[in-house]
Design goal:
mainly beta
């Protein structure tokens, strides 16, 4: 579906599963119905970012790239279709988090590579994250974009230093000398 919309069902049926198997015996018309997402998504946080990753964790190609960690503090599963990441406030819908990415269940993290190499996989943004602020927006069709979060990246001159929430999902932002992408932190010990 287009960004900001979610599958609602099949026109003229009571089926709401987004995939169906059918046998055609005559001319048949199937129409998928998509509704706009109108509720503001809550509980999704930009949890940790690193802009100069020299040895913390490599992507699937063995490259050490900037990364973004998102974390779900809510009790709801987060679907991605209406969410965007950007490093440019003049382009709030710069990179649409693909709806093909597995939804984020409560209490889980996802790591996205901010290296501008979209062709590598759907977990790579179309922008390279440097010494700047990262923003997450939700698109609500017919209304506007809603700012869900922002986090300033650490200085790019500092290799292998990340900035993020401690504990996970909180508004307490610190710099980590030992970045730990996609690990749960709730106890008060330094990382």
């Amino acid at each position: 579906p287009n960004p900001g919309y979610e599958f609602a069902g099949w026109l003229g049926t009571s089926l709401t599963n987004d995939s169906i198997t059918v046998d055609f015996y005559s001319d048949t018309l199937f129409t998928a119905v998509f509704d706009p997402i109108t509720d503001v998504i809550s509980g999704i946080h930009i949890n940790e970012v690193i802009s100069n990753n020299q040895m913390i964790i490599a992507d699937e190609y063995g490259d050490y790239e900037p990364f973004i960690e998102l974390y779900n503090t809510s009790l709801d599963t987060i679907n991605w279709g209406a969410l965007f990441l950007t490093n440019d406030l003049n382009d709030k819908t710069r990179w649409n988090i693909p709806s093909s990415i597995e939804p984020l269940v409560p209490g889980n993290h996802i790591m996205i590579w901010a290296d501008g190499d979209m062709y590598q996989s759907n977990l790579h943004t179309n922008f390279d994250l440097g010494n700047e602020t990262l923003y997450m927006f939700q698109l609500i069709p017919g209304i506007d974009t809603v700012l869900l979060g922002q986090l300033e990246t650490p200085n790019t001159n500092q290799a292998n230093i990340s900035r993020g929430s401690y504990p996970d999902g909180s508004s307490n932002i610190i710099e980590f000398t030992i970045p730990t992408p996609c690990l749960l932190y709730t106890s008060p010990s330094p990382r």
